[in-house]
Design goal:
Radius of gyration: 30 Å
Shape: globular
Distance between the termini: 45 Å
Number of strands: 46
CATH class of the largest domain: Mainly Beta
Strand content: 35-45%
CATH topology of the largest domain: Jelly Rolls
CATH architecture of the largest domain: Sandwich
Helix content: under 10%
Bound molecules: calcium ion
Structural class: mainly beta
Length: 652
């Protein structure tokens, strides 16, 4: 207390508050009269990346300081897009490398600093300032540029280095680029951590990104930088603790070594990837390439959230493939998942882990034929009771009338039999809210063109035309049949105010679109479907967008072409789920229980009890299908003795 000002300080002594975490602070005090007062506020921690200690490498060759810089230049115009430029580096696009390789080792140069401009001009934050500051550093020409044809455009650079981090803690890096860049740390696909990037084109600008190193050490890092047209420059530096170019140790920069570490074995791909946002039912796959050592396939183990899971392991041509089939199990919306991988090679064991968050979703609509999960996304919601197509109590619909609602059935290979026979019907009830550019159904097939357009309908597009596309788009008859809905025999002004039963069927070369059972469109000579189905999207195109802003109900798929009498039965009240040939059926009659966004984070055995760690509200049931009720008095971690035959737990 000083001069009538009271100051209270709370020091965070146990590590760091989690990246992006939100906190409430409440201050309670008494005034001199003894009256208790309080004030509260909230704050969110800025985002940062965390690099685990095991990413550090030992025995680094410190004889060459700086960076390895590889330049690839194309005579063709290349877009400013990070994924595209990874392909450029991999030699998949861009044709011949027209950079000037003079002084390089196969287009790779060893350089002291990353402070380049295409003309060697003063550019960015570090340049000829003439003031002797840590930023007063001359720009250099980009290695290999200008290229053999004198050009300074369509360049992609790849930088490998090992950064010596003197002590654990937070460091803020900066990358100034014209145009884009991406920086990661790590040794291979299993332990690489995305640190920062700019995906696009821009003039010389800095992107700052903060990194928590859990331990001091030598960390392999990689940046890619790319340039489309106009100016070209790049700088890589720290902003704190010191503002200095990497390896500019005289000005307080972190020491770096011009090394690209080679592992005895390397994980070449993992799925889902670190930092990815997979569908919650995705399986796990890992590939490991032998190098100077060979993977012992019997040693491979996978854990999910610390629990060992069954994995199939195979090896061919020095590449080990590891697959975990989760059998359709679902991670909760946004759940953080950590995958652990352990394997031995050449007598030493490697343990590595990576994390990602499952894609967020509103709820799951289960198919009543085989329990295929429809993942309900965006601002979709279930209707009130009685909001389904029949209007009866107990009948709910899926309300996609918002601006981003859709449902996806990820991994719909159960349709392959019907696609192989080239005979199926997709039928559903829909009540339109907004007419626009939209897709009511989009079944993706791997070999179908136009966005994997295996089986697709615009019901309608913004021009009031209904389109039914199969096996690509948009050739008349072989792929597409369409027509203005005003041409439908029973069309009237109130048409879109009512529920209608839509049916899209394919019986080899014959395609039909029926409304309430009545034939609206037909075509002959359609190409066959291909039996390589990926996903089913309901109420949008694949991946979302072009949302069909309708209430949907009774979305059904059959392995035959439904007849007029079949469809008229449904139109007059028979459940679509009661007809022969049903492959999948979503009636949307079970809305997910209202609840929070809790999740079970771990389940473990301790002293003979099951210990459940969770967020939100813990609920239990005697059957996996429920009903679930709150576990009275529970708090996380919750410990329960396994005395019953079975008990199921969820957290919401
Ligand atoms: Ca510069
Ligand atoms: Ca540029
Ligand atoms: Ca329903």
């Amino acid at each position: 207390q000083s001069g009538g000002i009271s100051t209270a300080t709370h020091e965070i002594t146990s590590g760091f508050l989690a990246s992006g975490s939100e906190h409430e602070v409440e201050v309670v005090w008494k005034d001199s009269g003894g009256t208790e007062l309080a004030a509260a506020s909230t704050f969110a921690v800025a985002g940062y990346a965390t690099i685990p200690a095991e990413v550090a490498i030992s025995n680094v060759d410190t004889s060459k300081k700086g960076f390895l810089f590889r330049t690839v230049q194309s005579a063709e115009g290349l877009g400013n897009e990070t994924a595209l430029r990874e392909q450029h580096l991999a030699g998949e696009i861009g044709g011949e490398n027209i950079a000037d390789d003079w002084g390089s080792d196969d287009y790779t140069w060893t350089v002291d600093l990353i402070n380049f401009d295409q003309d060697g001009n003063a550019q960015g934050e570090f340049r000829d300032l003439g003031d002797g500051s840590s930023q007063d550093v001359f720009d250099d020409f980009i290695p290999g540029i200008p290229g053999l044809e004198g050009g300074t455009d369509n360049i992609t650079g790849e930088i490998h280095t090992v950064v010596r981090v003197p002590k654990a803690g937070l460091y803020t890096f900066g990358f100034n680029s014209d145009d884009g860049f991406k920086t990661t740390a790590g040794n291979d696909a299993a332990d690489s951590v995305y640190l920062g990037g700019f995906n696009g084109g821009r003039g010389a600008s800095t992107t700052a990104f903060t990194v928590l190193f859990e331990a001091a050490g030598d960390y392999p890092m990689r940046s890619i930088w790319y340039e489309g047209g106009g100016g070209a420059n790049l700088e890589w530096f720290t902003i704190s603790p010191n503002k200095a170019l990497l390896n500019d140790t005289g000005n307080g920069g972190l020491a770096t070594f011009a090394v690209k570490p080679e592992l005895a074995t390397s994980v070449t791909a993992v799925s889902p990837a670190p930092g990815g946002a997979p569908f919650p039912n995705e399986n796990i796959s890992v590939t490991i390439a032998d190098g100077s050592a060979s993977v012992d396939t019997g040693s491979v183990q996978i854990t999910l959230g610390g629990q060992a899971v069954e994995a199939s392991v195979s090896k061919s041509g020095g590449v080990t493939t590891v697959e975990v089939d989760r059998g359709g199990a679902m991670w909760s919306s946004g759940e953080e998942v950590t995958v652990g991988l352990s394997y031995s090679a050449g007598g030493s064991t490697r343990d590595v882990s990576w994390s990602f968050n499952a894609r967020t979703y509103v709820g799951i609509a289960s198919d009543s034929v085989s329990s295929h999960s429809g993942l309900v996304l965006g601002d979709a919601k279930w209707t009130e009771d009685g909001g389904g197509a029949s209007g009866q109590a107990g009948d709910l619909g899926l309300d996609l009338t918002g601006t981003s609602g859709t449902m996806v059935v990820a991994g719909a290979d159960f349709l392959n039999d019907a696609f192989a026979k080239d005979v199926l019907t997709v039928a559903f009830w829909a009540k339109k809210s907004v007419i626009g550019n939209s897709s009511s159904v989009w079944i993706t097939s791997e070999s179908a063109g136009s966005g994997n357009r295996g089986f697709q309908a615009h019901t309608p597009w913004s021009n009031n035309n209904v389109y039914f596309d199969t096996q690509g788009c948009c050739a008349a008859d072989t792929q597409r049949v369409n027509g203005d809905v005003a041409g439908y025999e029973f069309y009237e002004d109130t048409f879109w105010d009512e529920w209608h039963l839509w049916s899209f069927s394919k019986d080899m070369d014959l395609k039909e679109v029926r409304i309430d059972g009545n034939l609206f469109l037909e075509s002959f000579g359609a190409d066959p479907l291909s039996a390589d189905v990926m996903d089913i999207w309901v109420g949008s195109e694949r991946g979302g967008a072009n949302y069909d802003r309708s209430v949907f109900d009774d979305f059904a798929i059959y392995d035959r072409a439904l007849s007029e009498s079949d469809l008229k039965k449904i139109a007059s009240g028979t459940s679509a789920g009661s007809l022969d040939g049903l492959i999948a059926f979503w009636d949307f009659n079970t809305a997910p229980a209202a609840g929070g966004d809790g999740a079970i984070s771990s389940v473990a055995l301790a002293d003979g009890s099951v210990v459940i760690e969770y967020t939100g509200t813990l609920k239990s049931a005697t059957s996996v299908t429920g009903p679930y009720s709150d576990v009275a008095g529970a708090s996380s971690p919750y410990s329960v003795a396994p005395t019953k035959a079975a008990e199921f737990y969820i957290a919401e």
